[in-house]
Amino acid sequence: MRPEHSSMGFPKPGKALLGMMIAIGCIWVMFTLGLNWGGAGEGVLEPFLGISEKVLHGQVWRLLTAPLVHNPSDPWHFVTTLLGLYFLGASLEERWGARRTLAFLFGSAAFAFALQVAVGALLPKMARPVFYGGLGMIEAVAVAWALAHRHATVRLFFVLPVTGTMLLVFIFGISVLNVIAMRAPPEGLITPFGGMLAGYLFGDFSPLRRFYLRIRFRQLQAQSAALRRVPAARGRSGGVPLRVIPGGQKDPPKDKRYLN
């Protein structure tokens, strides 16, 4: 098969990606100005951060707010999230639409952080008491894009030519190296793997999606068969009984059923 090549032009994100990128950028600017210039305390971030202990005690909404928060002292942390959404997410939104794209972004980020909390509870060395950032979301986007464009080539950051397969190998290798070196990003050591798994499970080539489509197809087949049986049953039992009227009668029968 001949490899596909993506356009060198700027991607055109849809409403979902554009809204997500604006939200992440505005949240970072707001908290950064408040902390560094407005005299706000670090406690202002606490309600939005992922805190493993509080998530385990029922505050699961933190899994949805933590992906929107990025390190106020590190601009590159939120910029990499924006770049990942911009370069890899546009083609996904074009195929999926805004609603599914938003569900995928928030769902994959929450799934990745939930896996971080669960593994951290079982293996304390992998635990991350406080976590935040969009790495899990970006890993999911990267995997979903790579699986859908195995033979395509994209100029990442307009410089690095990578195929879908190369991108998969790169992000997985970096995550493994971080575990070996015990160099945890703000999202945690397990979150990137959770994001990759979410990208596989919730993307176009998901086994869960294939299972759902198979079940849905069988339901439609059953409904179609039932609809085909209904007219046949009505023809056998629901019709008006017919009688043969002897010919030659001068007066029409009084029973109106025989007029036609």
From TrEMBL:
PROSITE patterns for this protein: PROKAR_LIPOPROTEIN
Segments for region (Disordered): 236-260
Bias kind Basic and acidic residues: ranges: 251-260
GO cellular component: membrane
Subcellular compartments: Membrane
Similarity annotation: Belongs to the peptidase S54 family.
UniProt-listed PANTHER family: RHOMBOID PROTEIN 2 (PTHR43066:SF1), RHOMBOID-RELATED PROTEIN (PTHR43066)
Entry protein name: Peptidase S54 rhomboid domain-containing protein
Native source species: Sorangium cellulosum (strain So ce56)
